[in-house]
Design a protein that fits this description.
With 323 residues, the chain is α/β, with parallel strands linked by helices. The protein has helices at residues 28-45, 63-74, 89-106, 115-119, 123-130, 134-152, 164-176, 180-185, 208-218, 234-248, 252-268, 295-304, and strands at residues 17-19, 24-26, 54-59, 78-85, 110-114, 157-159, 189-190, 199-200, 280-281, 288-289. The protein has one domain (42-320): Rossmann fold (3-Layer(aba) Sandwich). It is globular, with a radius of gyration of 20 Å. Bound molecules: iron/sulfur cluster and zinc ion (ZN) (2 copies).
């Protein structure tokens, strides 16, 4: 974020950010007010949670998850963090450091899981041992462990920092494939069902540029470099394509995603495998699954028996599964 040579729309002080999609420029104070309002609107519109609910925030060390944790605590919500050490070389060490410092400085409760320490594998090894692309092995591990921690910890809702850019890119990918099962579940809030905890994405109305600006004006340090495995994945190319469209036509990204929620998502209600009831308990761990043994148990079995694989061996592979 660089200072922009003009004035805040609200107070006429020097602006720190220009938001073409809102035809507005804001100073630091009114940028924060804008972000708070956008989060509050998402929370209210989609009945995400209420004051007094126990919230577990999935934190990665990146700007979005630290921003949402900060915004929730600032708004008075009771929010703890959960960080999962993925074992992606130095990158994971850096991410863990940012999360620990953030929590310690604010005296927040941080839970941690380390894949290698607690489950005997890491993401590079899981990718190699199972033949899954790294983001698929990683996503499966994170989803399962965040769900389990929310359930076991008695939390009312699991919150993630997905922003408008993330959701629009995933929607773009799912639409290109007309993946109805994924489209039917691509909602900002999913109720607790079939053993899965309630999940919410309070930042879906904010872009990643806006969450980065929130972190800057709030003095939040976050990991800036990309995951070394992310380079070249499809999700990033969808974001680039949408950014090109957004530059020419500000507001397109929001109208694509928010229009989907308003007009298309209701037509898809009940289309996902989870909603149609094709879910059983895993015969090994008891977690909900559409098969006999869940994909996570199969991944742990193969990966923990494999010798550790260095991140360099998998970082050239690209591709990611959308949610
Ligand atoms: Fe995991 Fe892929 Fe994200 Fe890296 S880019 S943290 S491997 S999901
Ligand atoms: Zn102002
Ligand atoms: Zn299982």
């Amino acid at each position: 974020m660089t200072a922009v040579a003009s004035k805040c729309r609200v107070c006429k002080a020097p602006a720190v950010i220009d938001l073409p999609r809102h035809n507005a420029k804001f100073c630091a104070e009114h940028l924060q007010q804008f972000c708070r309002r956008q989060m509050a609107k998402a929370v209210d519109d989609f009945d995400m949670f209420v004051p007094g609910d126990r919230i577990l925030v999935a934190v990665s060390g990146g700007k979005d998850s630290l921003a949402v944790w900060d915004m929730l605590v600032e708004a008075g919500y009771q929010a703890d963090g959960l960080y999962i050490g993925l074992g992606i070389g130095d990158y994971s060490d850096d991410c863990g450091g940012y999360v620990e410092r953030f929590a310690a400085e604010r005296e927040l409760t941080l839970r941690t899981i380390d894949l290698r320490r607690d489950y005997g594998y890491d993401v590079p090894t899981a990718s190699h041992a199972t033949g899954r692309v790294p983001c698929s092995a990683c996503g499966l591990s994170k989803r399962r462990l965040f769900d389990q921690a929310a359930r076991d910890g008695g939390y009312d809702v699991l919150v993630t920092g997905h922003n408008l850019d993330d959701e629009a890119a995933v929607l773009f990918g799912n639409t290109l494939r007309w993946d109805l099962d994924y489209l039917a579940r691509q909602l900002p809030v999913l109720p607790a069902a079939n053993g899965f905890p309630k999940k919410a994405k309070p930042l879906v109305r904010l872009t990643e540029r806006e969450t980065a600006a929130w972190c800057l004006v709030r003095g939040i340090d976050y990991v800036v470099e990309e995951c070394p495995i992310a380079a070249g994945n499809r999700h990033l190319s969808y974001k680039e394509s949408l950014n090109t469209i957004e530059t020419r036509s500000p507001g397109s990204k929001a109208s694509f995603y928010l229009g989907f929620l308003e007009r298309m998502a209701p037509l898809l209600a009940g289309q996902s495998a989870a909603a149609t009831g094709a879910v059983h308990d895993c015969t090994r761990c008891g977690s909900p699954t559409t098969g006999e043994v869940c994909a996570f148990c199969r991944l742990v079995e193969k990966s923990s028996a494999h010798e550790p694989v260095p991140v360099e061996m998998v970082s050239r592979r690209s591709g990611s599964r959308t949610r």
